[in-house]
Design a protein that fits this description.
alpha/beta, diaminopimelate biosynthesis, NAD(P)-bd_dom_sf, 262 residues, 12 strands, NADP, Dihydrodipicolinate Reductase, domain 2, Rossmann fold, 7-stranded parallel sheet, 5-stranded mixed sheet, 9 helices
């Protein structure tokens, strides 16, 4: 029996990619596609017109899992709707503030949720490698994160870059909030020992490039992931949806889906 998927934000870049992928899947079926209140279904529509809706409750009525790559404000509404409907939730929305993240965690008490800054299998393997490399490096190794995305991305640093930073910080048993240096300008002075630096690039149609840089005296290690299309993220989200359908209530991530936990 296939897992029935509702897609949030069907007219978005990820929504269109997910729609195409699920349409060709043997394990997943499309239950509904949501549109923003000011949107109409595309013409020609890639799926049956009756699958489009502006109402999240209607979208969830025949769904097992909601896949959500929308906005923080919209995702907060989805948290309540999924919990009320008993529908599992794959959330790839980034840029949530503390209050919005709290809404996700409250919903996880009632439904199974997979939340990840990046659903690419390659990126999640990268996070594991970053953790191992940070543990193996000495305290004199400087940690930097360089990320690049398309000109339309609205948050910076990216959620994936922050996830890399959190992996580094956890491996050193420190707080990323305490160690992060998000920008540099002017006379900054010497690099603070133990800091984790971020550099952000925005331009063109870059889907997503991330590099974790380990720089010490005499050598550098770079761990890089480059995404050529959004298909890698969509495939990972679908993989998470299939896995999530059999899980009990709780907050999971792609490290759980890929069984990368220690």
């Amino acid at each position: 029996m296939s897992v029935r998927i509702a897609i949030a934000g069907g007219n978005g870049r990820m929504g269109r990619t997910l729609t195409e992928l699920i349409q060709s899947s043997d394990e997943l079926s499309l239950a509904a596609v949501t549109l923003a209140q000011n949107e109409v279904a595309p013409v020609p529509a890639p799926v049956a017109a009756e699958l489009y809706t502006h109402d999240i409750a209607t979208a969830l009525a025949d769904a097992d899992v909601l896949i959500d790559f929308t906005t923080p404000e919209t995702s907060v509404m989805h948290a309540k709707a999924c919990a009320q409907a008993g529908v599992s939730w794959v959330i790839g929305t980034t840029g949530l503030d503390a209050s919005q993240q709290s809404a996700v965690e409250v919903a996880a008490g009632q439904i199974a949720i997979c939340q990840s800054a990046n659903f690419s299998t390659g990126v999640n393997l990268m996070l594991r490698l970053v953790e191992l490399a940070t543990r193996a490096s000495d305290d004199d190794t400087d940690l930097e994160i360089i990320e690049a995305h398309h000109r339309h991305k609205v948050d910076a640093p990216s959620g994936t870059a922050l996830a890399i930073g959190k992996a580094m910080a956890a491996a050193r048993d420190v707080s990323l909030d305490d160690q992060a240096v998000m920008s540099r300008e002017g006379i900054t002075g010497a690099r603070p020992p133990g800091s984790i630096g971020f550099a952000t690039i925005r331009g063109g149609d870059i889907v997503g490039d991330h590099t974790a840089l380990f720089a010490s005296e005499g050598e550098r290690l770079e761990i890089t992931h480059r995404a050529g299309t959004r298909l890698a993220f969509a495939r990972g989200a679908c993989r998470a949806a299939s896995w999530l359908a059999g899980q009990s209530a709780g907050l999971y991530d792609m490290q759980d889906v890929l069984q990368l936990r220690d």
